[in-house]
Amino acid sequence: MYFSKWLLKSNKPVDPYQLHKIIWQLFPDKVNDERSFLFRIESTRQKCEQHILLQSISQPQATSGELIMLKEPKEVHFDLKAGNSYRFMLCANPTKKINDKDGKTENQGKVRVPVIHDDEIVAWLKRQLVGSAEVDSVELIKKDLLHFYKNKPGDKHIGKIQTVTFLGTLTVEEPELLTAKISNGVGPAKSFGCGLLTLARI
């Protein structure tokens, strides 16, 4: 797994779906493959300047004119051990499914909605990690509402998602399961900068 940091300079705010497409340009030989990276917007020092942490299976190539490399890709091999404790950070899109009040029948009559209340958001996080790690402490340090415009053949619409940034500590229970969570991401909306779980040893 490779970790790298990038800077996106733009004359206007870039919606997360468009940012996802820009990041994909760092993998010119993977355009027809399944997405094999996760990313998180780390900071916005100026109105339109975004620092991006990127985790990828393949080594990214600085071929995009819109992204400037801040830190070269570093290959990391996870060596988690049961019982070890870590600080963690995660930007995620906590959601739940409810019955569609308009009576739509798609998706078994269910629609996905954001989880709003803090206690339910924390419970959502613990469910995502159940069996892989025990959440020892957690803070919800930021909530954002991200607007996006999706423009794919047959799928063009304006949307929005609620994101929550978690900061806390956890203890590893099953290293392989937690490694899989880190590799695959946590929760939905990974194309919008959600799901990247990072750890730092305490």
TrEMBL record:
Gene3D superfamilies named among the record's database cross-references: Crispr-associated protein, domain 1 (3.30.70.1200), Crispr-associated protein, domain 2 (3.30.70.1210)
Pfam family of the protein (one): CRISPR_assoc
Transmembrane segments: none
Full protein name: Type I-E CRISPR-associated protein Cas6/Cse3/CasE
